Amino acid sequence: MTMIDRASREFRSYVELYERASLLELGSLADQARWRLHPENVVTYIIDRNINYTNVCVADCKFCAFYRRPKHGEGYVLSFEQIGRKIDELKALGGVQILIQGGHNPYIPFAWYLDLMRYIKRHHPIHIHGFSPSEVDFFAGRFGMSIEEVIRELMAAGLDSIPGGGGEILVQEVRDRVAKKKAGADRWLEVMETAHRLGLKTSVTMMYGLGETLADRVEHLFRVREVQAPPGASPPSFAGRCSPSTPSSSTSPRPTRSPTCARRRSRASCSTTCRTSRPPG
Ligand code: SF4
User: Fold this and answer.
1) 62 C-alpha to center of ligand 1: Å?
2) I need a surface site. Which of 37, 128, 139, 194 has the fewest CB within 10 A?
3) Whether residue 103 has its Cβ less than 6 Å from ligand 1
């Protein structure tokens, strides 16, 4: 992995822009970049649905109010039929894609994931955007496989693309503080590069508000840009604020306050960060 040179003129210029630019200026610059990259007068969107197949997880991320430790009474794994019903509900509303991801559940065998992909494609066909890089990394470690083997098998069973969940801030010092047991920054990006090489498209996220600096956020964007650069990768990106009182999934029954993201930010600050969440360049 290439090291990001924080002393470079380009890096410093983006940090400086982030610090001083108004929301409107950033919005205008983002719009100019968008027209430069996509001059065609077309903007598209899709309707999709997040499905969290399990909340059982051993990663213990400090900001997460969604997960339950193994053997916790509120832990769950959705059945194939429950997942199928959620897809049918989505389709009834015009949805065309599911984003399916979940906790790092040590009790689920790899065959379950493959059977799930096949079940969906057979009985509820839809585009499957599934299994974040940290899950793929967890599968590789748990089942003694390489990243490439994991992705190849999931693709053969029906996986269509990979979501960018678990990216948080792709700076190792930040991850060490809040998500130490999850795939590290280099490993997360390695999963995405492998997916691109195997012909999959991916998306990417940035979850801010973890006590990171503005330079950390810019480094995240620079690192994402490197992985986006090869033709065919073209992932969309979005930023989400770590919310102190909001669970990371709509299925969580237990909102908790995280000490790592307890500092509330203004709406303008959040908008500013979202405007900068397209990797520069
Ligand atoms: S954020 Fe994801 S990986 Fe981390 S504890 Fe929550 S469910 Fe597990």
Assistant:
1) 9
2) 37
3) yes
Q: Is the CB of 65 under 6 A from ligand 1?
A: no
Domain residue limits at 131? 44-275
Nearest residue (CA) to ligand 1, atom 4: 61
Question: In this model, does residue 265 exceed pLDDT 80?
Answer: no
Residue 139 near ligand 1, beta carbon < 6 Å: no
What is the torsional sign of CA 256, 53, 145, 200? negative
Split at pLDDT 50, 70, 90, the class of 237 is: low
CATH code of the domain covering residue 144: 3.20.20.70
Q: Which amino acid is at 127?
A: H
DSSP class of residue 260 equals G
Alpha-carbon distance of 219 to 7, in angstroms, equals: 11
Ligand 1 closest atom vs CA 57: 8
* pLDDT digits 0-9 by tens, 180-224: 999 999 999 999 999 999 999 999 999 999 999 999 999 999 999
How many helices (H) and strands (E) are present in the chain, helices listed first? Answer: 10, 7
